[in-house]
């Protein structure tokens, strides 16, 4: 039993360590290549609604401005770790690994949220996939 717990903790640590690399690279790629376009798309939601439905230009004042800022703030919540990682994989021509990254992030969230959870089902294959993605991201 003790050896199993040590192995489990090593898998957790291996996953978290490799994931940190993936996370850093995903954040950088998203910020540098996609964040501006995403922010512009959010900023245009209310102006587009006004022009298409009311034939009015967005004034950027009063209630329109408040609603636009609200939409932009809420819209930022669409940017998740998984979505940033998938965009990074797409940029690196590794999109075939997107299902792996979804599972890796799901497990990472379970492990990370509890520091160490009982029976998190971290398998060596998941750790290896995380390390593979981290290695591909740094090459």
In total, how many beta strands? 0
- Rounded to the nearest angstrom, the distance between the terminal CA atoms is 38 Å
Radius of gyration: 20 Å
Number of helices in the DSSP assignment: 6
Oligomer: single chain
One letter per element, helices H and strands E, the order comes to HHHHHH
| Average pLDDT over all residues | 83
The global form is elongated
**Poorly predicted parts:** 1-6
The level of helicity is: over 70%
**What percentage of the residues does DSSP assign to strands (E)?**
under 5%
Main beta-sheet annotation: none
What structural class should be given to the helix and strand makeup? mainly alpha
Protein architecture, described:
The protein is mainly alpha-helical and 139 residues long. Helix content is 78%, strand content 0%. The protein contains six helices and no strands. It has helices spanning 2-43, 45-54, 62-76, 81-91, 98-113, 124-138. The longest helix is centred in the N-terminal third of the chain and has 42 residues, at 2-43.
């Amino acid at each position: 039993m003790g050896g199993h717990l040590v192995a489990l903790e090593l898998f957790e640590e291996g996953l978290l360590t490799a994931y940190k690399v993936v996370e850093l690279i995903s954040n950088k790629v998203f910020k540098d290549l996609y964040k501006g376009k995403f922010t512009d798309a959010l900023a245009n939601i209310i102006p587009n609604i006004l022009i298409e439905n009311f034939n009015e230009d967005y004034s950027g004042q009063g209630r329109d401005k408040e609603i636009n800022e609200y939409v932009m703030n809420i819209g930022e919540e669409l940017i998740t770790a998984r979505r940033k990682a998938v965009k990074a994989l797409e940029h690196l021509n590794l999109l075939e690994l997107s299902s792996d990254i979804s599972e890796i992030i799901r497990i990472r969230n379970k492990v990370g949220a509890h520091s160490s959870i009982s029976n998190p089902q971290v398998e060596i294959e998941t750790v290896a996939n995380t390390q593979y993605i981290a290695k591909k991201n740094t090459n």
